[in-house]
Amino acid sequence: MKIGKTKVNDELDLSKLPQHIAIIMDGNGRWAKKRGLPRKFGHKAGCDNIKKITRNIFDLGIKIVTYFAFSTENWKRPKEEIDEIFNLIRKYVEENTEDFVSDGIKVTFCGKYEELPKDIVDSFKKVQNETKYCSKNVLNFAVNYGGRDEIIRAVNKAIKIGEPVTEQSFAKLLDNGNLVDPDFVIRTSGELRISNFMLYEMAYSEFYFCKTYWPSFGNKELQEALISYQNRNRRFGSIK
Ligand code: FPP
Q1: pLDDT above 90: residue 17
Q2: Which position among 9, 74, 87, 196 bears the catalytic label?
Q3: Is residue 215 within 6 Å of ligand 1 at its C-beta?
Q4: Does the pLDDT value for residue 240 go beyond 90?
Q5: If phi over 0 gives left and psi between -120 and 50 gives alpha, with beta otherwise, what is residue 142?
Q6: Is the N end or the C end of the chain the one with fewer CB atoms within 10 Å?
Q7: Would the CB of 222 count as within 6 Å of ligand 1?
Q8: Ligand 1, atom 14: nearest CA belongs to which residue?
Q9: DSSP bridge pairs for 185
Q10: What's the predicted TM-score (pTM) here?
């Protein structure tokens, strides 16, 4: 069976999909190294993969996807590589804004992206503004994002408001305050850690780790991950 251009695995139950997937796209550098290419080619291939896999994710009926594109710790990388990543994101959102609008895709960002170079910040604000009324899907990018940093900023917002918080009211102060928590988190490339990603939001997420490097993680690998998700028993602390 196909939905749009997405081939669907017979084993996948389309009525049991996560609402929100968060992806730690790891392995771009190793993907490039394996091919004797500079790291930036890995990031370019990773960026091209975002376009393809986002189509698959939304075709299947998943509403929200968050990609971890740049962490508060990634500043330790060479400036050339950092600039390359920001430019790829900027180019990606600029070149696809029209399609986002016509496809009903709302683009959002989380993290301290306002600290990035002005041209990057301007392009992020523009795409957010132009897609703000889109309501079919959400495409969320974590850029200059750290889970601890997000929590600390939310704590400071709460102090300014000056009232005790609840779990629910505190969650609203986070960057993704209007999004449901990720049900499912995928990390590619064989690393088994969460690297300071969405720490508060992932309290009850299901995790999936696979060896494939991000640029090679395609529709087939996505659906294998989703089949694993569907076979989990999410109890949220109950005994069901
Ligand atoms: C991790 O792989 C990847 C990143 C830190 C950057 C991810 C960025 C992109 C895919 C391009 C951004 C484009 C958009 C549209 C968001 P790594 O470099 O740590 O790989 P390695 O562990 O193999 O070295």
Answers
A1: yes
A2: 74
A3: no
A4: no
A5: beta
A6: C
A7: no
A8: 89
A9: 22, 207
A10: 0.97
Judge whether residue 34 has pLDDT over 90: yes
Mean pLDDT of all residues in 13-22: 97
Identify whether the C-beta of residue 80 lies closer than 8 Å to the C-beta of residue 110. Answer: no
Report the SS3 class of residue 2.
Answer: strand
Note if 83 is an active site residue: no
- Mean pLDDT, rounded, for 183-202: 98
User: Is 144 annotated as catalytic?
Assistant: no
pLDDT band at 147 (very low <50, low <70, confident <90, very high): very high
Residue 30 Cβ inside 6 Å of ligand 1? The answer reads yes
Tell me the helices (H) and strands (E) count for the chain, helix number first: 7, 8
Which residue's alpha carbon is at the smallest distance from atom 6 of ligand 1? 69
Which atom of ligand 1 has the smallest separation from the CA of 81?
A: 18
Inform me whether the pLDDT recorded for 149 exceeds 80. Answer: yes
What pLDDT does 75 receive? 96
**Mutation test of ligand 1: which of 24, 25, 211 has the most ligand atoms closer than 8 Å to its C-beta?**
25
Q: Where are the domains of the chain?
A: 2-146+183-230
Mean pLDDT of 80-108: 97
- Substitution site in 43, 100, 109 for ligand 1 pocket (most atoms within 8 Å of beta carbon): 43
Handedness of CA 121, 123, 125, 127 (dihedral sign): negative
Domain 2-146+183-230 has CATH 3.40.1180.10: yes
